[in-house]
Amino acid sequence: MAKYMLLIYAPADGARSPEEMEAEMPKWFQFTQELVDAGAMVAGDPLEFPSTATTVRVRDGETVITDGPFAETKEFLGGYYLIDVPNLDAALGWAAKVPNVAYGSIEVRPLAEIPQPA
Q1: Fewest C-beta in 10 Å: which of 50, 59, 68, 78?
Q2: Residue 84 pLDDT more than 80?
Q3: DSSP character at residue 16
Q4: Taking residues 32-50, what's their average pLDDT?
């Protein structure tokens, strides 16, 4: 089995109304339960809006803290699922079922294996 991150992106322009978001919640609960039932779910959480972010950089020994995200984008990272599935094809299949895929995007990225020293 291999672990993949499904990074959930949504339009930054706020295309979804609060009512639309609330109406979509049962689809998210159902999708999450399908992952659990399939034994693929490792972890997953939504993220607060980018306006709540704080970015930390250290340059030449100086720590610089900036309110907000690193960069302005057309989409923002809204959450993630960490899944454990047999291969990339299985991960892509799950990504195609994420409830916001029709108006957002899902980045599928494998977790890197870091060899442990002997």
Answers
A1: 59
A2: yes
A3: S
A4: 95
The mean pLDDT of the chain is 91
Return the residue matching tokens 């993630």. 80
Residue 118 lies in a domain: no
In a domain, 36, yes or no: yes
Residue with tokens 């291969």, as numbered in its chain: 87
SS3 95: helix
Mean pLDDT of 80-109: 96
The domain spanning residue 8 has which CATH number? Answer: 3.30.70.1060
115: in domain: no
Q: Tell me: the pLDDT tens digits for 44-70?
A: 999 998 889 898 999 999 999 988 766
Which parts of the chain are beta strand (E)?
2-11, 41-46, 54-59, 62-67, 75-85, 105-110
What is residue 102's three-state secondary structure? coil
Tell me the C-alpha distance between 65 and 77, whole Å.
20
